[in-house]
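To whoever is covering the structure queue this week,

Two jobs came back overnight. Logging them here so there's a record in the thread.

Job A:
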Amino acid sequence: MIPIAVNVALSVVGLSMLLCAYRAIRGPTLPDRIVAFDAWVSNLIAVVVLLTMRDRIAFGMDLVLVIAILGFLGTMAVAKYLKGGDIFA
């Protein structure tokens, strides 16, 4: 029963990733695109967790932490750029 639930969840999260990618490409404003990218990264984390559960991948949670940190740093860099400052200052 669990593998069926995980496969259904993967399908739903995959659809959500497609919708987030559409909003990131067609977003009317830059903040909309940033929020869509952040939601896409959250969905990517969900996909990795679900695949880790289904396939029993040993390093899955380490990968989740790396993706979360990179997503956070990317969002912060773009937010600082939008604020009008240099990213690395």
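Job B:
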Amino acid sequence: MNNKQYIGRQSISFTNGPYIHAYASIVGKKEGEGPLGKYFTKIVEDDFFGQNTWEEAESALQGETVKLLLNRSGVSPSDIRYAFAGDLLGQLMATSFGLAEYNIPLFGIYGACSTMGEALSLASMTIAGGYADRVLALASSHFASAEKTFRFPLGYGSQRKFCATWTVTGCGAILLDSSSGSARVTGITTGRITDYGLKEKDNMGACMAPAAADTIYNHLSDFGRAPDYYDKIITGDLGYVGQTILIDILKTKGYDISNVHMDCGIEIFDINTQDTNAGGSGCGCSASTLCSYILNQIEKRAWKRILFVPTGALLSPVSANEGQTVPGIAHGVVIEAV
């Protein structure tokens, strides 16, 4: 019996894709004050989340988001076969400490800001392959812990460039199920490392845009689809700078996505009132936007089919300090209303 589900160069079309059974999101005060505030499951006023350090705060953010998800779904941790989760901190420390209390078998993953796309892809493959009935996909970021890791301590007071994005304090979690839900993952396109030689770590939108273009181009080619097949093609956190570059690159490849493109980093903050420069970024940007506004639109059937493409800048504090380039990656996930 042939049960092959892979197509084209780097995509999978699921024969029986998993359902999105439940979802939840938590964000910080600044994110809650943005245009999407009414869609988040919970907004926390204290960015320390009652903890003593920024890293502990991000762990608490993850743990609380999973608790909300479990309450919304009526599922206990023992009912979940695996978790695919990650963050931006060294050795995934926010995830390791944040999810420990739930005792769910864990695959800790790192795709920089594309982590939610990677988590959804792997979780979907796990269910579609018959290895689990329920799987958790989760990603988080925290403004202060990310600044401390990748840039400067906040007390340094460094000037932010216009092209810089603002790391979202937020977490999004999805429970995938083999049998029921309000939406379904029907396909994925796994991204490739794409490096145009850029070295400016403050301009992550420009560093990630080529990767987003590569994944979207190969997705459309693999599936034989035009951009308007989707109600929205949604990137993770390119911001205003990266969005322009993405659209321009794809036009040179014969695809114009300008009428259907949306970027989570643009949507989550108000550029005129919130002083976030080029927009939002971080694992939590696409994860929290997906697990609030985007899935809400699908549930209401305002959108029937989207391509979700979170993007990641694959730098580390070591690589940046050594003057290396900033490669990018993006993972595509097709989500359809049921």
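Note for Job B: The two ends are 28 Å apart (CA to CA).

Please reply-all if you pick these up so we don't duplicate work.
Q.
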